[in-house]
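From the pipeline queue, job 12 of 40. The input is one protein chain; the requested action is below.

Action: predict structure.
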Amino acid sequence: MTQREFVSAYIGLGANLGDARQAIFDAVNALKQLPLTQVRDCSSLYRSEPVAAKGPDFFNAVVHLQTQLNPIDLLRACQQIENRAGRERPYPNAPRTLDLDVLLFGTASVQSSELCVPHPRMRERAFVLLPLHELAPHLVQEADLLKVKGQAIQNSSDKN
């Protein structure tokens, strides 16, 4: 059996129920435990108002991984972390204890019923673009940052 190459992936993290800040820190630690995966860096923690949703403010971050998992296995691992954090999905954009999104997976384009990569709405959301820009400025275009400039977001300067 041949070993797969490591692929650079970026995961968006968000939470706005319970101790949302701690949920983000716990999720980063859970990502560090994934098989065939290394956490390379984590952005600062950002606080933002919900977009297309109601509820308390979100805490968000982006994590840069190197992984040998394939995109679907990475998604499923993220969903297991969400489930352990008590994630429920009563309706679209519901408040949540934890949300992990596979934003980018190397240069791959994945379009399936389970996963779309690059994440289809990531360039519309300041809570994704600002922490992603912090980790990988070359992946975020200045025009995209200008589009989300009016969205309320604050860097809380916490890093995990």
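Job complete. DSSP finds four helices and eight strands in the chain.
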